[in-house]
Amino acid sequence: MARRLWLVWWLVSGVSVAAYPLLPRGDHLTNLAYGVAGLGTVLLVLLGVRRNRPDRPALWYWLAGALLVWFLGGVTYGVETRLLHHTGFPLVADAFFLGAHPVVAVGLWLLLRAQGRDRGGLIDACITGAGAGLLFWVFVMRPVVEATGTSPVQRMFVLAYPAVNVLLMVLLARLLVGRAARTPSFRLLAAGVTLMVATDATTSVVSGSAPDPGALLQVGWLLAGLCVGAAAVHPSARHLADPVEQLEAGLSKGRLTVLAVSSLVAPVLLLGQGLAGVDALDWLPIGVVAVVLFVLVVVRMSDLVGKVQSQTEQLSELAMRDDLTGLPNRRLLEELIRDELELRGRPQVAFIDLDDFKRINDGLGHAVGNQLLAAVGKRLGGVLRPGDVVARLGGDEFAVLMPDTGQVAADALVAELAAALEEPVFAGEHHLLVQASIGVADAEGTRDPFEILRRADVAMYAAKEGGSRQERFRPELDERAAEVAQLGAQLREALDQGQFQLVYQPIVALPHGEIAGVEALIRWHHPRLGFMSPADFIPVAERNGQIVELGAWILLEACSQAATWIATLGTEAPGKVSVNVSARQLAEPDFAEVVAAVLAATGLPADRLAIEVTETAVFGGGRAIEALDAVHALGVRIALDDFGTGHSSLGLLQTCPVDILKVDKSFVDDITMAGRHSVIAAALINVSDGLNLEAIAEGVETAEQARELYRLGYRYAQGYHFGRPVATPQFALQSTAA
């Protein structure tokens, strides 16, 4: 019911106000209706305070008090004119009418105070008030001052009405450009005050005094009270004084128009009076107002300039900071390095790259990855000395600037950084272990901050490739980096020109050595350098991403060849072809789709293909395991290569969809020696049998090793003893039976 009360009041009162001009003037019923409407508005405001319980009821009580004073003025006016037959101006009622305005002003001031400080809005309101005040002076107040036959009391009242109206205009303008929420209660209250000011201003302009203003003007006052009462009883009045959390209101087109018109009032009036030939120009008030407006505009412009400068500084600061960690970004770090070079010239820079961050990001989600990056930033900052700076360059890359630091001290600090990152890091609910590769560089022989960062980056990649975790830049690393870059370009040419070739190494069944399958291996016959080992170019392809395209070519070529063998050799064709897949390939979101497309294009049955992955490629789970699950669902077999040498080999058997274990060569080399050398190989075949997995022993080079493996329970093997990788293997019974 409370939510509808304001609407009922609005409808009933609206109809009554609309009918008021139709009532006979001077009739007692008309006067009674006018008085009842005023008193009803007062009671409605008090009812609204009681029902809505606003956070700041004082402002409503002041507004109710203003309406009560206005109501008393109406009653007094009726008594004086209708019963006592008093005429003239001023009447006692004018004291009430005039006194209602300051009470309204107090209520508006309380509302404005609750909105907080807004210097710009206050200045804009003063500019509007100054322009309006000058208009009132020229057209209302000055004629009264110069008029003859008026008493000082009459002049005082006639001048007071426009003065208090100007005050209300300033407060209203300040309210409209302020931070109050534009709720229905706010809009109704603003409409009521606007009607009040407009009606009073019209009365002052039309009459020049305060005689009976007529029914239409009384309707304006009634509508003003109607709006204030509806604002009080509306449910949104409960939070009328709550400020909106936002920046200072901007200069909209409408606001700029009002300010421009107000600022032009003084010169336009002066120009108009001059063109009209007015003898006594209002040069003094116009000049005073012009000076006031000029000062206000200057102050406003100063505030705007200061605001723009402040926002520019904030934007500059934001542009120099990483959004996620709040650390300096690459741009700010480069400036700090440049400043250090100019000041002392001895900066050391450490370039830090987190290992396997993509695995964590893919496996646990970007939210956890972001929390990890923020935690790593804090961890690094906790190790630094005063004056050192840690920055986030992007992704999982950080950098540390060590000003005025020698090589020994820098290396010691970098060792502390590396040690700090070896401690577990909390990211949300996860307790994560991270490691980092760190490259260090100084400014020897250069004054370019970009060059120092490049050197540190080169050293970091050298640390990552060498497994040393920490590496200092040396000139020869540039040579290696240049070779890697050149090799990457040559890889691109090799892919385009078909310089790669696949060779196949047999996988045999023990004890007789029948070929059960083959493993596809890539070879590169460089047109200038000759044969290149995969160990020389595969890491480069992994680093620059070309392994994805190269791996897709290997998969297509191997499956095509296997399908050809099946079509031409029938039962003598190898049972399966194994293809090695890198961690970078598994990270691609469409890897399973690529495998499915290759099988469809070549016609190779899915169970004749095996995908070989290393333990390190799937150790972190996440996207890699999801990719293997999708491939396994196609019917493709999954083999764990180099099994037994990874971080948690047995644990992978629970998370990875494994069909084949390829036992690492290190467990085969000494298997024929007495003692403990065959224990692990024996344990691994027991694990395979227990989990119903196929075990393949790798790196078999002698018949003795083959016989011992067979004795331990191995039924499949691979190695030089059974055949080296060749492009066109002969699929017939081997003479190298165990």
TrEMBL record:
Pfam families recorded: EAL, GGDEF
Keyword Membrane in annotation: yes
Natural source organism: Dactylosporangium roseum
Protein name per Swiss-Prot or TrEMBL: EAL domain-containing protein
Residues of the EAL domain: 484-738
Stretches that traverse the bilayer: 29-47, 59-79, 91-112, 121-139, 159-177, 189-209, 215-235, 256-277, 283-301
Domain of life according to the entry: Bacteria
Domain GGDEF: 345-475
Gene3D superfamilies to which the protein is assigned, alphabetical: 3.30.70.270, EAL domain
Swiss-Prot/TrEMBL keywords: Membrane, Transmembrane, Transmembrane helix
